[in-house]
């Protein structure tokens, strides 16, 4: 046994762990993390990586993940696949903590990291997206083309995808924690039949993003932690459409990419034992796209366009009801109303607008006219055994895409989320998360019959839409070092709130 003294307490380190006692009081406290580390024997210390090794692994893991990020389809075109743990409860309470991957929504939750932690995983997305033209639309197309127009349905235009994510973090000292996350906040991949009734509005549509998010958190005391981070985001898009209604008509392609920066911030509060509240913010990022407009029979025209990606505010609550059961909830707002009109210009035209008639009649830009988006969810977590926890949750998403602006590229509407998941700890160092979600878009029918829809190009198009998705997610977690949560000298334990 090794003894040492701190201000106002005496601590002992043995093979069974470290405990501190305040003189004159009987209550035992956990040792502060840095004192535990300094008191370990040489044999125990040998089981941990040194600080430089951990930091090298942190950065190396992020670099590897940055090269394999994938694309997928989600509500509007924001992705919600950044946490296997959170997915098991339909992301209820994620901004309040629960897992290292919760740092995507709130960097302050890094305060729950006690040593070195890594979380590496991914989500398989299996969508079914179909757009079927009405009989009136087919009749209009036949009348315009003398019966030669493409009039078939889109087929299943959803593309299966795998979206990997990764997070690593390290507690530097009693108060400061550093981490990094790599994921894909935005994505879209739809590919209808090449010749279909809506080809004059869309063929292939793709959005791809990779976001690298270094973060730090500072634990002010046992009740309050704050955090902030930098976002470095690569964004790429390609939108293709047919130049006519006949089968085999050539394709116009508008594409561009950019790398830009933003930030994240958050706070986590534990007002009572068993209660965690988190508020997180992800800033808007302006993606100044540079790319080309390719029209049949013409040389590619260089183009510029500024996309203001939406900021997000997430509020999460986790409340322990009993020793085995925790209830969680989320409210999230996304400022999709930033997505209104997007000007497309060309340096070859002296910065003048580009004629996008192939995409929208008389257009000199792209018009989306989205509303703000909201997401609500509730869920629960039950400790079935000391090693295994079960989760379930339900969520509802108010889509930023209304009936008035829905397009053939994104047959999206309000969504219902039904999720279940589990976690299993193999030992003190390794654990595993698994989750499944079924997501159903409520009524994604399309009405582009007049100029009230910003996609209207002069050709009336009305169709029935269908969209549902299956998400299968898994993650492996690794923890090295660390112990109980640090106890701060000025901290007095709050009263336990009983339910």
UniProtKB/TrEMBL annotation:
Principal location: membrane
- Annotated TM spans: 55-79
Q: Which GO terms describe its molecular function?
A: long-chain fatty acid transporting porin activity
Q: Name the UniProt key words of this record, in alphabetical order.
A: Cell outer membrane, Membrane, Signal, Transmembrane, Transmembrane beta strand, Transmembrane helix
The keyword Transmembrane helix is annotated on this UniProt entry: yes
The UniProt entry lists membrane topology as: Multi-pass membrane protein
Q: Where in the cell is it found?
A: Cell outer membrane
| A Pfam family per the record | Toluene_X
- To which protein family does this belong? Belongs to the OmpP1/FadL family.
Q: Please give the name of this protein.
A: Transporter
Whose protein is this, by species?
Answer: Propylenella binzhouense
């Amino acid at each position: 046994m090794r003894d040492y003294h701190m201000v106002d307490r005496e601590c002992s380190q043995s093979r069974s762990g470290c405990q501190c006692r305040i003189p004159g009081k009987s209550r035992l406290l956990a040792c502060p993390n840095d004192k535990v580390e300094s008191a370990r024997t040489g044999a125990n210390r040998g089981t941990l990586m040194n600080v430089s090794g951990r930091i090298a692994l942190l950065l190396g893991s992020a670099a590897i993940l940055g090269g394999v990020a994938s694309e997928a389809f989600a509500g509007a075109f924001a992705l919600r696949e950044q946490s296997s743990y959170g997915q098991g409860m339909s992301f209820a309470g994620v901004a309040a903590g629960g897992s290292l991957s919760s740092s995507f929504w709130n960097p302050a939750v890094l305060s729950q990291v006690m040593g070195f932690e890594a979380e590496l995983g991914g989500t398989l997305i299996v969508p079914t997206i179909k757009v079927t033209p009405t009989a009136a639309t087919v009749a209009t197309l036949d009348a315009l083309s003398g019966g030669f127009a493409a009039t078939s349905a889109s087929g299943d235009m959803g593309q299966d995808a795998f979206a990997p994510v990764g997070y690593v973090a390290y507690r530097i000292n009693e108060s400061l924690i550093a981490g990094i996350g790599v994921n894909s906040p935005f994505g879209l991949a739809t590919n209808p039949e090449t010749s279909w009734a809506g080809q004059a509005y869309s063929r292939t549509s793709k959005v791809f993003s990779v976001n690298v998010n270094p973060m730090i958190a500072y634990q002010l005391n046992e009740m309050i932690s704050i955090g902030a981070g930098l976002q470095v985001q690569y964004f790429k898009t390609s939108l293709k459409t047919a130049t006519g209604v006949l089968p085999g008509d050539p394709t116009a392609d508008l594409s561009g990419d950019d790398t830009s920066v933003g930030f994240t911030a958050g706070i986590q509060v534990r007002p009572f034992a068993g209660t965690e509240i988190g508020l997180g913010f992800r800033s808007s990022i302006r993606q100044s796209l540079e790319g080309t407009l390719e029209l049949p029979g013409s040389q590619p025209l260089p183009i510029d366009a500024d996309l203001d990606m939406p900021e997000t505010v997430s509020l999460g609550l986790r409340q322990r009801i009993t020793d085995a059961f925790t209830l969680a909830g989320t409210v999230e707002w996304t400022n999709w109303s930033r997505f209104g009109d997007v000007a497309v210009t060309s340096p070859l035209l002296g910065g003048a607008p580009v004629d996008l008639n192939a995409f929208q009649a008389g257009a000199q830009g792209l018009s989306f006219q989205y509303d703000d988006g909201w997401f609500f969810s509730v869920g629960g977590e039950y400790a079935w055994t000391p090693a295994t926890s079960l989760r379930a949750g339900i969520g509802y998403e108010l889509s930023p895409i209304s009936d008035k602006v829905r397009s053939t590229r994104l047959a999206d509407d309000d969504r219902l989320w039904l999720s279940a998941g589990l976690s299993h700890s193999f030992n003190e160092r390794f654990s595993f998360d698994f989750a499944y979600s079924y997501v159903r878009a409520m009524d994604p029918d399309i009405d582009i019959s007049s100029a009230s829809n910003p996609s209207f190009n002069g050709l009336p198009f009305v169709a029935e839409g269908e969209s549902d998705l299956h998400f299968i997610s898994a993650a492996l977690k690794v923890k090295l070092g660390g112990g109980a949560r640090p106890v701060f000298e000025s901290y007095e334990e709050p009263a336990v709130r009983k339910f």
